[in-house]
Write a structure and sequence with these properties.
Rieske Iron-sulfur Protein; mainly beta; about 0% helix; about 120 residues; 11 strands
Length: about 120
């Protein structure tokens, strides 16, 4: 199911049953972006880029979910760089960040918001 709003289109990412707390799921968006999708133990959903900005590897979905001072985090499995799941900001380097994506649960499906495509007349 795909629904459109003026600023975003929600696309189905995966069934909620596939997204276990603290396990990541890699999602390929229609435009080719790779997203890492997470559910924390307190059941919050987060989506960030899946490409590690330090190595270029598509591994963030296999990272270690954690917490740093109340901030939900993901640590890259490659070099262990830590990023905020809320903002994508690296907690180790102020000049590095992951893009974040709006995410929601719609009944039994997790969805990610992608920019709405411009329609040409």
């Amino acid at each position: 199911m795909t629904t459109t709003t003026p600023t975003a289109t929600w696309i189905d990412a995966c069934p909620t049953s596939r997204l276990h707390p603290e396990d990541g799921v890699a999602v390929l968006l229609p435009d080719g972006h790779q997203i890492a999708l997470f559910r924390t133990r307190d059941h919050h959903l987060y989506a960030v880029d899946n490409i590690d900005p330090y190595t270029g590897a598509a591994v963030i979905a296999r990272g270690i979910v954690g917490d740093r001072g109340g901030e939900p985090t993901i640590a890259s499995p490659m070099l262990k760089n830590v990023f905020s799941l809320r903002t994508g900001q690296s907690l180790d380097d102020e000049h590095t960040r992951l893009n974040t994506w709006a995410v929601r649960q719609n009944q039994t499906t997790v969805q990610i918001a992608v920019p709405a495509q411009e329609q040409t007349p």
